[in-house]
Request: fold
Amino acid sequence: MLQLNGIHHAAIICADYQVSKAFYTDVLGLRIVAEHYRAERDSWKLDLALADGSQIELFSFPGAPVRPSFPEAQGLRHLAFQVDDVEQSVLALHGKGIATEDIRIDPYTGKAFCFFSDPDGLPLELYEV
Reply:
């Protein structure tokens, strides 16, 4: 039987590598694990770690098309980060100039959550655990 133990990483393709690198490291506080420039693809690959060991791979590819988000398209809907306190996390984002949606309560779990976007409009979520 297949046993999946967790999510190792999520891969994100960005439009402006330096802007997205600053967002994920300086704003969200992810730790850089490795950074590689792949000359044959004119592409950067940045491995970022979250506190639980899961990772985000940030890629740049020249000419990558814009991701359709609104109206919602098929595929990955959003990337959610678990936090201890959504309200405190939202205030921290606001302090760094990041706009968020209003905090809402999940009607099925009773947990607080809030959406915001990365520099390319990728929907991100804070989910209180």
Summary: The chain is about 15% helix and 35% strand.
